[in-house]
Amino acid sequence: MSDELKWFKSSYSGPEGDACVEVALDWRKSTYSDDEGSNCVEIAPCPTAIHVRDSKLSPETGPHLTVPAPAWSAFLAYATRSR
């Protein structure tokens, strides 16, 4: 996992370069992931959403899932109860 943040331009920024705001995702590897490169799940929490990705795929081009924060909280509550 990279220690660098992934910066991207906000959808509210203008195409002409004015009113540009960039935000960054701070990806964190799951404690359930192993060090051999398999079972690697990373999340990047934001105030309104949680981003989830498979860290074995390219961080720049690989897909990721965006989950609303309340749905993520419900998922964690369910997963904790189901252990």
TrEMBL record:
Stored InterPro entries: DUF397
Annotated DUF397 domain residues: 5-24, 26-79
Protein name: DUF397 domain-containing protein
